[in-house]
Every structure is written in structure tokens, then in C-alpha cells.
Design a protein that fits this description.
The protein is of the alpha+beta class. The chain is built from eight helices and eight strands, in the order ααααααβββαβββββα. The chain is about 50% helix and about 20% strand. It has a five-stranded antiparallel β-sheet with strand order 3-2-1-5-4.
Length: about 240
């Protein structure tokens, strides 16, 4: 980063440096920028524990490094251009060096800032054990007995069983069906709906009522009474 900034300033040639030869201009700015940057990094490392705030430390380090950077700049000018140390040059370089120091330390702080921690949650649904559904599946026709169970919907004294092989009406009370499905991984989401957990693809909740989207495009209502089971499973 410091090398890139030194090359950039060498190319731009600010503060009258555009009249220098390319070799001297690039050499001068590389010494000034890289050397000053290393001074700033050293000060930042020393103050890291005492000044915890990143941007407060950027300002403090920039102010502290500027006099040291000015001495380095003056030394580089003496060596490369044959200039002399003088108070005039010192006071002239101070206001020029401070903005560059601030820019270097600010860019460094942005480049090295800690990345925010990202926490991902995932709901893992285990498929039901075959024996858990065995009693209920025996009530279905042969075509749907081995199909994927999606939901059970109550209709008076009948139940509409939704599977990936289609729907089927059976004669059974909803309460008895819930007893037979007690060990199956699923939830009662409404007074007349039970859904298989592995068939749930999404849940929407608005103004005290909800809707669960199931496999195959099927949708089932979610009542306020049974919403906590879906909330506890992480769906909303």
C-alpha cells in the first residue's frame, strides 16, 4: 500500500516536484512515503492498547508522526537534492506533511479494519422414521402408501391426505390422525391442518395470521394458536 502511494505521488509530482527528473522524483517520494508510513505504523502499534478508538488513533498517530516524517523528508531532500536543514523548510513542510500522513493512516485503517462477523443459521430437518408413519400409511391406497407425505387436512369426518402422488380422502377423525402422527416430524399449524416438517418450504406471517408454503405448491393456513411451533423451529 505504501509503495503504491509512493509511486502515485512520484507520478503526480506535487509540491513542485514535477520539475525533478523521473528517477529523483520517484526515489524521493518512495523514501518519504514508505519511510513515513513505517513511522506511522510503528506509532500505531505502540498506541493500539492505550487508544482503542480506530479513528481517534488515526488522528493522534498522524499528528505524532508528522514531525518525524518532516525530518525524514528534509533528510531525503538534503541527500537527493543537496538542500539544507532550516527552520524555514521545517515550517513549510509541516502543513504539507500532515494531510499526507492523515491519508496514509486513514487508508491503512480502512484496509485493516476488522470484518463484521457473519452468523448463519440453518434449520436441519431429519426425515421421519418409516415406522413412525407406518400405522397412518396403512390407511392409504397402494398408490400413495409409499409416497411422500406432505400434509393432512381435516374435512368434517374425513381427512384429505396430501402426498406427492396426489390427494386422497380417508375416513378418520383428525384427533386420531394426530395421535398416529405424533412421532412423525411435523406440526399442527391450524385447527384443521397438520404439515410434514420436510415438506415446508417457507412461512409468511402478517397481521396475526400466517401461511405455510409446502412442497408441490400447496399452501396451508397458520393460526395464532399454533404459530409458536413454527417460530420455535426457526421459520420466522
Amino acid at each position: 500500500m505504501l509503495t503504491a502511494m509512493g509511486l502515485l505521488l512520484g507520478f503526480l509530482g506535487p509540491f513542485g516536484a514535477e520539475h525533478m527528473t523521473s528517477a529523483r522524483r520517484y526515489g524521493y517520494w518512495m523514501i518519504c512515503v514508505v519511510g513515513s508510513g513505517l513511522i506511522g505504523i510503528g506509532l500505531d502499534w505502540l498506541l493500539a492498547r492505550r487508544v482503542p478508538g480506530t479513528w481517534r488513533r488515526v488522528v493522534l498517530v498522524s499528528a505524532l508522526m508528522t514531525p518525524l516524517a518532516v525530518l525524514l523528508v528534509m533528510t531525503a531532500a538534503v541527500v537527493i537534492f543537496g538542500d539544507r536543514y532550516s527552520w524555514t523548510n521545517l515550517w513549510k513542510l509541516l502543513p504539507q506533511s500532515l494531510p499526507i500522513a492523515l491519508a496514509m493512516m486513514a487508508v491503512r485503517a480502512l484496509a485493516w479494519r476488522p470484518r463484521p462477523h457473519r452468523v448463519e443459521t440453518r434449520t436441519i430437518v431429519e426425515p421421519p422414521l418409516p415406522q413412525a408413519e407406518a400405522a397412518f400409511r396403512k390407511r392409504l391406497s397402494a398408490r400413495r402408501r409409499g409416497a411422500r407425505l406432505i400434509a393432512v387436512e381435516a374435512h368434517d369426518h374425513y381427512l384429505k391426505v396430501h402426498t406427492d402422488a396426489g390427494e386422497e380422502l380417508i375416513t378418520l377423525r383428525f384427533a386420531d390422525a394426530l395421535d398416529e402422527l405424533a412421532k412423525v416430524h411435523g406440526w399442527r399449524v391450524h385447527r384443521s391442518w397438520w404439515v410434514a416438517a420436510e415438506a415446508v418450504e417457507g412461512v409468511r406471517w402478517r397481521r396475526g395470521a400466517g401461511e405455510v408454503r409446502l412442497a408441490g405448491g400447496l399452501e396451508a393456513p397458520v393460526s395464532r394458536t399454533y404459530a409458536p411451533v413454527l417460530k420455535g423451529a426457526g421459520w420466522f
